[in-house]
Each structure stands twice: as C-alpha cells, then as structure tokens.
Specification:
This protein is an alpha+beta fold. It has one domain. It has six helices and twelve strands. It has helices at about 1-25, 90-105, 165-170, 175-180, 195-205, 210-220, and strands at about 40-45, 55, 65-70, 75-85, 115-125, 130-140, 150-160, 165, 185, 235-240, 240-250, 255-260. The strands form two sheets. Strands 1, 2, 3, 4, 5, 6, 7 and 8 form an eight-stranded mixed sheet that branches. Strands 9-12-11-10 form a four-stranded antiparallel sheet, with helices on one face. The protein starts with a helix and ends in a 17-residue tail after the last strand. About 25% of the residues are buried.
C-alpha cells in the first residue's frame, strides 16, 4: 500500500513539474512583431544639454526639462518637454505647443518625407519662471536635391500664460530695431578660420532694405506659411542679456545667420506689456 501511494505521489510531482515548465516557456515567448510603428517618440528624463554659453536659467524656476525624440525612418527630431510644473493643465498645453512647433520643420518637405534624411537638435537659450526660449538646428536632405539644407528655427513660450510668443509680441518692430540689428553681434557655430563666412553673412544683411527687414521681423517665428507668399524664414530667440534674430542667407554663407542685440540697446523697443518676460 505504501508503495502504491509513493508511486501516485511521484506521478503527481512529474505532472506539476511539466506544467510549470510549459508555463515558464509560454511567459518568455517574444511578443508578436507583425505590427510595426513608422514613427515613435522616446522620452529621456535626463536634463537637456546645451553647447551655448548664453544659456541661462533665472532664479525662481521650479520646473524641469526633459528630452523627447521623434523618429520616423531617417527622420530624427529632438525637442524639449517641461516636467513638474505646478499647473498640470498648463504643462500639458505647453508641451503640446513644444512638440507641434518642433515637428513643423517637416513643412519644408511636405511632398517628399518618404525620401528625407533629417536630423534636428535643440538648445535651451533661456528659461525662467515666465519665459522659455528654444533654438533648433539641423540638416535636412531630400533625395534628388542639389544640396542639403542647414535648418534653423525657434520656439518661444510665455510660461505665465502657456502660449507661444512671436517676436512682435515682445519687441516693437521699427526702423530703430533694424538699425540695431544691422550693427548687432554676429553669432555662428561654423568653422570660419579666415572669417569669410562672417563677412559674407554681414554683407548679406547690410544689403537688405529697412522695409524688407521690417516685413521679415513682423512675419518672424512661424513655420505655418512655408510654400506660400507669406513664408518667413526669420526666427527670434532670447538669452539672459540679448535678443537674437536669425535671417536666411545664401547657401555659401551657411543658409542662415544669427545676430544678437543687447536688451540695453533696444529699451525703447521692448513692449511694456511683456517686458516682465525678459531678464
């Protein structure tokens, strides 16, 4: 009788062991990969890094910044997102603006994104409790094009209201601003040992009329009108002590040129209504 019970016990243990093995095997099976995503967004909780010496963060900043990455085939667009803002609804709205504006660079290639190679990175030019200024730079190349494009654009956010800002919201556009811009400090990350690129960029700007620059400044900071008569490739950004303005120039001179004007030199051009946004 004891042998009978022992035999039954051994059989039961064997069945349980086989069952557990099958269960483990099932749980470790890889997930189905029959469906693939053509575009993905990844989030990094590490703070974004910047190569700009002008980057500054004012006192009173309680939020943090994280990096998101949009990828689709050969397209990579890095853009920032705000975290830990006290007002969660405002944070969501701001992050939607940041993502939407970052991806609008694709408007340059509306009809040719399938054969597009694009790599965009960002720099936080300034962030305070009231203002966030983001600069984007990168290279885009559509198959069959004569040359790649050196791309530059920006996004400025009023953090107090959770809205996008354009140059005309903060700065009065007039002849005085144009004159200060033409005498502003040229900025470039390009290798320019003989200063030829700098000279070409400055010459390009000096040749522009006051009327043309005023029109460009009034239409600045929008990627919505690409391909139309209202297209503007002029963008603005803000640092701890200066207003930066980028203008399109010749391919030989780098496709775009940035000039910075000290706030102290354009006090009369700063709108009183939004003066509190600036450092």
């Amino acid at each position: 009788m004891n042998k009978k019970y022992l035999l039954i016990a051994l059989i039961s243990i064997s069945i349980l062991t086989i069952g557990c093995s099958k269960t483990k095997e099932t749980l470790t099976q890889p997930e189905s990969t029959t469906q693939t995503k053509t575009a993905t967004v990844a989030t990094s909780t590490e703070p974004s890094k910047s190569t700009s010496s002008n980057v500054a963060s004012s006192s009173g900043v309680t939020y943090q910044m994280s990096k998101n990455v949009y990828t689709n085939k050969n397209i990579t667009i890095n853009y920032p997102q705000i975290t830990n803002l006290v007002d969660s609804a405002k944070q969501k709205s701001i992050n939607e603006i940041l993502k939407s504006e970052a991806l609008k660079v694709l408007n340059y290639y509306k009809d040719n994104t399938n054969e597009l190679s694009l790599d965009i990175n960002y720099t936080i030019k300034y962030n305070s409790k009231n203002l966030l200024s983001v600069q984007y730079e990168g290279i885009g190349y559509a198959k069959g094009a004569a040359h790649p494009n050196n791309l530059f654009y920006t996004t400025n956010i009023n953090l107090d209201k959770g809205t996008k800002l354009i140059l005309a919201d903060i700065i009065k556009i007039n002849e005085n601003l144009v004159n200060k811009f033409k005498s502003g400090s040229y900025k470039s990350q390009l290798d320019d040992p003989d200063q030829s690129i700098k000279a070409a960029a400055k010459q390009s700007v000096q040749q522009l009329s006051t009327a043309d620059l005023i029109k460009s400044f009034n239409n600045a900071d929008s990627l919505d009108n690409i391909g139309t008569v209202n297209q503007s490739d002029t963008f603005s950004y803000f640092t701890k002590d200066s207003l930066g303005i980028s203008l399109p120039i010749s391919v030989a001179a780098g496709d775009h040129a940035e000039f910075e004007i000290k706030y102290q030199d354009i006090q009369d051009n700063i709108n009183a209504q939004n003066k509190y946004l600036l450092p």
